[in-house]
């Protein structure tokens, strides 16, 4: 059973932990990285392999059943395999699922070893099926687009349990791609999720660039006909659909127009070791400092519990969020 430190004052049980492994990335996506770049945290202030695994063990001992590794880009971290192996050892202690979110650029050849080490689920960020647009959105030229598609195919080939594509939809940039992605699910058994564009520091968010999920659904149904509504998991952030007869699925993540704060079950640890109880909240508590002061496990669990209890009922809404100070997405970790 989930013990009390991970339950907040609204009785939400936080059994899902997202750990950012790095702030570095080999892409420069417009909605994630400010145009002027970001000052990176000095390496000595980032969590080490051992610190990440120690925190993961503590969270699992308190009832965490799902861990997802994010970034930055997790594959730029040289100890990624070691971290996943270490997390894999926690599966005998209650951890049920290890996931990772990656841009797929440097992933393909690493995948078999990561899966063997314990990686269960994979989310790949891909915002367009158009090669030229990929270069514009990622601010990177070259053959990255083919590498990402290759990584997705490899994940399917080696039977990674759940392969998802995350697509951030920005009006006037890539919203026409939604129909192409719907077509992509005909022969690809992956779950494509369309994410409403969200305000973060430096991404120049404007409400008119955000396409509400209902509008996307209408656009897809106008071409592909009525979609089949699939059942959503209790804590899932995705509204799930399928084009009848297609192998893959479609999902909509409506963080802005229809938030899911009431069923939120996730906590985040940033690459520099702070706990964030809400993606959009700007309150953080450093767990790294406690680890480096050799504080007891009990003390660290107590601090985690205090942070969780301060979690608010819901985030501020998109117009308020656009005015608030928060980290850029690259420094939060998805």
TrEMBL record:
Any GO MF annotation of the entry: GTP 3',8'-cyclase activity
Pathway: Cofactor biosynthesis; molybdopterin biosynthesis
Cited SMART domains: Elp3
EC number: 4.1.99.22, 4.6.1.17
Radical SAM core domain span: 9-226
Keywords, in A-Z order: 4Fe-4S, GTP-binding, Iron, Iron-sulfur, Lyase, Metal-binding, Molybdenum cofactor biosynthesis, Nucleotide-binding, S-adenosyl-L-methionine
Protein known as: Molybdenum cofactor biosynthesis protein 1
Catalytic reaction list: GTP + AH2 + S-adenosyl-L-methionine = (8S)-3',8-cyclo-7,8-dihydroguanosine 5'-triphosphate + 5'-deoxyadenosine + L-methionine + A + H(+); (8S)-3',8-cyclo-7,8-dihydroguanosine 5'-triphosphate = cyclic pyranopterin phosphate + diphosphate
Record note on quaternary structure: Isoform MOCS1A and isoform MOCS1B probably form a heterooligomer.
Purpose of the protein: Isoform MOCS1A and isoform MOCS1B probably form a complex that catalyzes the conversion of 5'-GTP to cyclic pyranopterin monophosphate (cPMP). MOCS1A catalyzes the cyclization of GTP to (8S)-3',8-cyclo-7,8-dihydroguanosine 5'-triphosphate and MOCS1B catalyzes the subsequent conversion of (8S)-3',8-cyclo-7,8-dihydroguanosine 5'-triphosphate to cPMP.
């Amino acid at each position: 059973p989930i013990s009390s430190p991970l339950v907040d004052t609204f009785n939400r049980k936080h059994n899902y932990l997202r750990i950012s492994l790095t702030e570095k990335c080999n892409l420069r996506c417009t909605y994630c990285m400010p145009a002027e770049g970001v000052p990176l945290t000095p390496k000595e202030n980032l969590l080490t392999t051992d610190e990440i695994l120690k925190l993961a063990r503590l969270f699992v001992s308190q009832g965490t059943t799902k861990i997802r590794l994010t970034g930055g880009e997790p594959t730029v971290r040289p100890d990624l395999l070691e971290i996943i192996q270490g997390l894999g050892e926690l599966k005998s202690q209650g951890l049920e699922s290890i996931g990772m979110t990656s841009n797929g650029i440097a992933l393909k050849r690493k995948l078999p070893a990561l899966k063997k080490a314990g990686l269960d689920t994979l989310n790949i960020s891909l915002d367009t099926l158009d090669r030229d647009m990929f270069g514009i959105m990622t601010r990177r030229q070259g053959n990255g687009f083919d590498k990402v598609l290759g990584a997705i195919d490899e994940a399917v080939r080696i039977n990674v349990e759940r392969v998802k594509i995350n697509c951030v939809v920005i009006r006037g940039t890539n919203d026409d791609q939604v129909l192409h992605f719907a077509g992509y699910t005909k022969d690809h058994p992956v779950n494509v999720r369309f994410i409403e564009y969200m305000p973060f520091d430096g991404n120049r968010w404007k409400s008119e660039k955000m396409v509400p999920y209902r509008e996307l659904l209408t656009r897809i149904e106008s071409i592909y006909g009525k979609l089949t509504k699939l059942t959503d998991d209790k804590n899932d952030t995705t509204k799930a659909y399928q084009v009848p007869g297609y192998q893959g699925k479609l999902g909509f993540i409506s963080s802005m127009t229809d938030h899911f704060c009431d069923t939120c079950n996730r906590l985040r640890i940033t690459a520099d070791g702070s706990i964030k109880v809400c993606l959009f909240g700007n309150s953080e508590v450093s767990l790294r400092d406690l680890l480096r002061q050799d504080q007891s496990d009990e003390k660290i669990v107590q601090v985690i519990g205090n942070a969780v209890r301060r979690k608010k009922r819901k985030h501020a809404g998109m117009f308020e969020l656009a005015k608030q100070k928060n980290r850029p997405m690259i420094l939060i970790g998805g």
